[in-house]
Amino acid sequence: MSKKFLKVFLIVVGAIILLIAIGSIGAAIKVSNSDAYEFAKKEILKSKKVEERIGKIKDFSLMPQGVLKKKEAQIEIDVYGENGKANIILKLEKNSKDEWEVLNFYFKELK
């Protein structure tokens, strides 16, 4: 391989990695600024089952993931408790009063 080809290849790969990183960060910011995310965090904080499994909640991950639509959402958050951590996925839907409700609450304890 020539040095010119290698240089161009590394620039292209670097640009692709940068675009993926920017997209991921942008998506996390969009999710974390949504009313669905705020609702999901409140539901997690209220959950006795979460507290029983990982202890009192200390923090949430900085990079939540999710799918946001007008009337439905899926929020995925890593939650850190006093005794462990968990990955929690909430499927939400807006009711007739335009308020979020939990359809499904998935909990997976992390090592």
Mean pLDDT: 92
Low-confidence stretches: none
The largest sheet is: 5 strands, antiparallel
Give the strand content.
Answer: 35-45%
Shape: elongated
Query: Into how many domains do the coordinates divide?
Result: 1
Question: What is the N-to-C order of secondary-structure elements (H for helix, E for strand)?
Answer: HHHEEEEE
Question: What is the helix content?
Answer: 40-55%
Q: What's the gyration radius in Å?
A: 19 Å
| CATH hierarchy: architecture | Roll
Look up the CATH topology: Nuclear Transport Factor 2, Chain: A
Structural class: alpha+beta
Number of helices: 3
InterPro entries: Coa1
Pfam family, one: Coa1
Fold and architecture overview:
It holds the Pfam family Coa1. With 111 residues, the chain is α+β, with helices and mostly antiparallel strands. The protein has one domain (3-110): Roll (Nuclear Transport Factor 2, Chain: A). 44% of the residues lie in helices and 35% in strands. It contains three helices and five strands, in the order H-H-H-E-E-E-E-E. It has helices spanning 3-32, 35-46, 48-54; strands at residues 57-60, 65-68, 72-81, 85-94, 100-110. Strands 1, 2, 3, 4 and 5 form a five-stranded antiparallel beta sheet that branches. It is elongated. The N and C termini lie far apart (44 Å). The model has no long low-confidence stretch (mean pLDDT 92).
